[in-house]
């Protein structure tokens, strides 16, 4: 049985944050109720005194579950999988889990940090990079990263990244593809990635986690 929670989880989130988007997908797949607490990154609400007490890194997401306050999307997803294991985001096979973690970290550690909002703001506001140059920077790192991901997906069935059900890998991939499309990147060279993206968006857990469906 699902462990009883004394109160609804809170997810401090920004609708367009791909890291928060990952966690929203994971929560939805598991059918876990949560309250969204918006943190508007463009308006620098993450720098408020109250929020910094929760998350000194001034980033989203932050999850509060009972007396636990946790940041970092992959840590949150793995916590949810261990604490509420009824619908698993990682398989029991150790080698398959290792592949999923490597794929997820390629997104969360290699691609996303180069293109998140604070980096783009720094390029534009501090280094006086033009919008055209900023977009070129963004597209370069996405395309290079997706070349690696596409190779890792050669054995995928085109529905999910690994196996027959969604995993943490899909929680990470779909927000990154959303961002790529937002920056008008041609993904025709990545048929596996595109196929997985379109399949996942047909699933309510993914669709309802999308930026356009968020209260903020």
TrEMBL record:
Membrane-spanning segments: none
Uppermost EC category: isomerase
UniProt keyword Isomerase, yes or no: yes
Gene Ontology molecular function: glutathione transferase activity; maleylacetoacetate isomerase activity
Cofactor: glutathione
Pathway(s) this gene product operates in, as recorded in its UniProt entry: Amino-acid degradation; L-phenylalanine degradation; acetoacetate and fumarate from L-phenylalanine: step 5/6
Record domain GST N-terminal: where: 7-88
GST C-terminal domain residues: 93-216
Protein name: maleylacetoacetate isomerase
Organism: Corythaeola cristata
């Amino acid at each position: 049985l699902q462990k009883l929670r004394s109160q609804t989880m809170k997810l401090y989130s920004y609708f367009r944050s791909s890291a928060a988007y990952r966690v929203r997908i994971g929560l939805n797949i598991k059918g876990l109720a949560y309250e969204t607490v918006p943190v508007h990154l463009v308006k620098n609400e993450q720098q408020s005194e109250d929020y910094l007490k929760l998350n000194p890194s001034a980033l989203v997401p932050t999850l509060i579950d009972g007396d636990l306050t946790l940041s970092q999307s992959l840590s949150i997803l793995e916590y949810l999988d261990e604490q509420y294991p009824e619908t698993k985001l990682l398989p029991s096979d150790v080698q398959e889990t290792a592949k999923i973690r490597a794929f997820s970290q390629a997104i969360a550690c290699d691609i996303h940090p180069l293109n998140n909002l604070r980096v783009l703001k720094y390029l534009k506001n501090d280094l006086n990079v033009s919008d055209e140059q900023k977009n070129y920077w963004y597209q370069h790192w996405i395309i290079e990263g997706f070349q690696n991901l596409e190779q890792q997906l050669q054995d995928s069935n085109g529905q999910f990244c690994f196996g027959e059900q969604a995993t943490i890998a899909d929680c990470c991939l779909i927000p990154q593809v959303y961002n790529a499309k937002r920056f008008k990147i041609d993904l025709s060279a990545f048929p596996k990635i595109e196929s997985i993206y379109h399949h996942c968006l047909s699933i309510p857990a993914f669709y309802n986690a999308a930026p356009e469906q968020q209260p903020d």
